[in-house]
Design a protein that fits this description.
The chain has about 160 residues and is of the alpha/beta class. It contains eight helices and five strands, in the order αβαβααβαβααβα. It is globular.
Amino acid sequence: MFNLSELKIQKNKRKGIWFYGLAGSGKTFASKIFKKKVKNYFIIDGHNIRKLISYDLGYTEADRIIQLKRVLGLVNLSIENKTFPIATTVTMNNEIYNRCLKMDVEVVEIMRPFEQISQIRPIYKNDSNVVGKDIELTSINNLKIFNNGTSTFEDEIEKLF
């Protein structure tokens, strides 16, 4: 976990941001807040990437690793093209996290109580190979923001600027 002074140092050199967390945790909402504060951004939503690029993949752990690598490639292309990537995915692993650090992309886990998200997302009742239900989310020592479903979450995202 990072403290606030470390975060201020990171803000100055940050070339992108990557939000990850369970479906329904607030990643897309966080991205919408963040894009209002950043010039020349490029949204890389893992759900859209899965529909448009990774349609050949399933939802196994191996396929999820391939998906992470594809999103990382798009993050890299975004930086090379002088845009600020705002990426979102359900999962993260240590290899991709470490590559993000080398690229000056901040990785932030959005956390929300499973009881809340399982009520609003039918995926947790109806589907299999679901992160948080069937697949455990990898524990990484990075910045974590808790989404309690109130304006406090928005305030926490604002602090990232």
